[in-house]
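Thanks for the sequence, V.! I ran FMN-binding domain-containing protein right away. Repeating your input here for the record:
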Amino acid sequence: MKKLFISALLIVSSVAALAASEGVGFGYKDEIKVSVEKNGDKIVAIKVLEMKDTKRIAEPAIEKLTSEIIAKQSVDVDDVAGATYTSQGFKEAVADALKK
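Predicted structure:
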């Protein structure tokens, strides 16, 4: 019973530590809205909520930027060639979410 209580307590405290915030940046065509999920101070996930940039160009760039931002734990990563405005807007949106 004691082990079960401790396990439940660990699960609750792990879930309680996750927090998500939303941010907005301006991409090639319009705003890019993202949700950034953090566990304490660590970025664990970034999801695009809204984006109107050309999907065949923007989606691969955002996928790459998401991986790099999570790995580096910073938006200070290089833009993706051929998707400069999308890259800058996405990084701006993530930075905006991290301020909140």
